[in-house]
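Deliverable D5.2: sample structural annotation.
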Amino acid sequence: MGRAKFYYQDKNAPKPNKPNHIGVNAIIEYNGKLLLEHRADSECWGLIGGGLEIDECLVAGIIREIKEETGIDICGNQLALYKIFDDPTRIAYYPDGNVLRIISVVYLLKLTQAFELKCSCESRELKYFTIEEVKNLSIAKIHMPILENYCSKNGDY
């Protein structure tokens, strides 16, 4: 099966063939580092998160995604709404032929204790990175503006 491809501000990106997709993502901090996943679908690194299910609210969606993708069990009051990223050039192409414009609601989670991380089938690896290390990673293009925004406010990006 092919790989997922992500586009941001790319005039050659494929046109969406499905309705707009709402996603939830988390910027997870611990000891001054950010938790990222090495995505199995694209070989890129990205934020924890995924698609909002039809019957869930945003907070329930990100709590579910964090648990599924990392094994970290949290409650809603640990989350802070960070920002909504709705640039219409944030496009995801999936090998099944779906092409989606991604609107991401991003939350910030500051962990105060270490957790044992558990990869899901969607990840090859989970790892904490400094902002400096993030700069040298191959990041999924739809997550790049989120990380650039965050890192520009919290360090040199």
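Annotation notes: The longest helix spans residues 58-70. The domain at 5-154 is CATH 3.90.79.10 (Nucleoside Triphosphate Pyrophosphohydrolase).
The annotation will be released with the project's public dataset once the embargo ends.
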